[in-house]
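so i finally got all the pieces together for this one. its two components total, 790 residues if u count the protein bits. some of the lines might not be protein, just check the labels. i wanna see the whole assembly predicted at once instead of chain by chain like last time, that was a mess tbh
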Amino acid sequence: MAQQALPGFRDFYPEQLVERAYIMRVWRDIVQRYAFVEYDGPPLEPLDLYTKKSGDEIITQLYNFVDKGDREVALRPEMTPTFARMVGARANALRKPTRWFSTPQLFRYERQQKGRLREHFQLNVDIVGEADVTADAELLACAIDIMRAFGLTAEDVVARVSDRRILQAYLHSLNVPESTIPAVYAVIDKLQRQPRQISSEKLQALTLPQPAIDAILTLDTTTFHTVQTTLRESPATQLTADFSRYLGYLNALIPNGAPWIRFDLSIVRGLAYYTGIVFELFDTTGEFRAICGGGRYDNLLANLTGVDLPALGFGMGDVVLAELLRTRGLLTATLSGVDTWLIANDNVPLERVMREAARLRATGKSVEFALRPQTVPKQLKAAKSAGARETITLE
Amino acid sequence: MAQQALPGFRDFYPEQLVERAYIMRVWRDIVQRYAFVEYDGPPLEPLDLYTKKSGDEIITQLYNFVDKGDREVALRPEMTPTFARMVGARANALRKPTRWFSTPQLFRYERQQKGRLREHFQLNVDIVGEADVTADAELLACAIDIMRAFGLTAEDVVARVSDRRILQAYLHSLNVPESTIPAVYAVIDKLQRQPRQISSEKLQALTLPQPAIDAILTLDTTTFHTVQTTLRESPATQLTADFSRYLGYLNALIPNGAPWIRFDLSIVRGLAYYTGIVFELFDTTGEFRAICGGGRYDNLLANLTGVDLPALGFGMGDVVLAELLRTRGLLTATLSGVDTWLIANDNVPLERVMREAARLRATGKSVEFALRPQTVPKQLKAAKSAGARETITLE
């Protein structure tokens, strides 16, 4: 028999499950404070739910197959298509703004690398039906509150925030030709992950004006104030005014929130997908991949379901988060052991122990006892190894 | 885009998820009182994990496929093989008796019938490392305690208990030839689901002695006392003595437990699998399929993993249970609504509302407010539709 799980899949022994349960508990606790309600969908879905959103290229990363009823199906690689389907099917009946969350296990067939799994659990938090930046502020405030609930501080994690439309207006103001925009985005996306020299060469090859190249190469340190000033006379002033309000709302929603937030136009997420404010949470040391990413995707519901509603959301996986918490000494959840271990002194019949166990269990306590007659020292040892918080000896 | 989930798969909208969460919460609450600790494994496993236990025939019921790494894989149709693999891999290190539970989602490609889904959630509760009937009693007491925690009584649900070895000894005592035993089991298994006349004809065809036929046809109403008397002089007296102890332990573990327990030798579960005491929980009206089934499977770990440890366990699915609870008016979990809705009186800036929301959320409350300026009556209406338990008006 196979003695191991499939590569990239985790067994959760009780001591690992307790860590997962802790992460889930904090997730649920905080998102519920923000009035999000839980939903779930099937882990197996029709394949076209994913190809319609992401194109056929996504198939290379999927666990997809043909089921016994000749249907093309796939294990869910992300939650948003299921979310869109479910919201779309009941869009009229749902209270707006709709605030939903879920904690699905997701599956991707990725080339195996260190730390890269083929499954993970991902908190998904979404708001549907509010186009204003108030909703964007609520969403990011919730993500940052989760970080805080885990004991992380702004010294550990920072949120990089951007706006896809402001970036576009800024590139226009730099006279970047429309035709080169996709190639420029690709360079921006890698700005912080490759040497500036390489980014510079790529931009030169696009024959951009030198001031534009200089501005793009410093995009990740360009302040909101600079961008605001640059766009002062352009039609994009409304966008920067809205973004300014957004920053003000974040400040109101997150006490002492300023150190958590960093304006960073180099944050480029899913091009075809996001339409407005986007953000990512990173550990400040840059040691790990993004902890969380999200933003506004106002066109997706219309494209996928025909229901035209503005929407925004984020995803936060359990794997990177757990790695970060572990390095910071913040993942300390351990098995709690039983409340009470019942010890039978010599000649106390097992039935009496059982009646006492039943009585205590009825009060909500977790109770264990030796399932066959043992000496008292042996029972005490068993109680200790079970992590019992108390022993009660029956005479 | 696919507008529906796959046939046999459920979407859990918040009002359905709240029911599922309620069932999970009761499951966890009770099994933890019995000192079981939670584990989980991958929903996708190597195919041979299942064929090794159940033979190749099981493949017709599986969601199986070849993954992109050329591995034969399957969505888990049951938890026990994963459980056996995990226990087997760490058998020496685990505290005995090992008490584990899990609440996996399971998948079977079944012909679609009314009420038959292709996925369900199943509570799995297992004990490893104790051969005595004390463990069997703990296990069934736990299952019955779960019924009670849902508000069900012995008028709603009854546990039918049997012992595979006692049944075998009883059939021997009736001079049923060894060669006909598998065919006789098949008849017994259907005894309560088909007319006696048909069962009778099938037994006649096996040319059993008439007293044996008469005894088998009334097996489901044969009392433990009758069986005990019949086997008095046989080597099976030890088995009936142990079973008698088992009933005594159940009586000690379950206050007023007698009405819940019905001795019923006609309970035949997985022939190749169970080795001792077996049980099923049924609704007393016979309206539904079994709510829960389990028993002792002392050979499985040795067969599958080479680790020879006695073991026993049960599975309890969420679907039949929820149907039963619903018909009894016991599935009443509803969305709880937010704790506080903040109402902004005229000219109160949104930032002030947000600061108040942050303050309240930091105390653990769930808080919502209108994300754009609205009249007070409109905000009150929104608060009501959100099920807010209180409104606070900021002046």
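Chain A touches chain B through 99 residues (CB under 8 Å).
Chain A has two domains: 14-327, 340-394.
anyway lmk what u think
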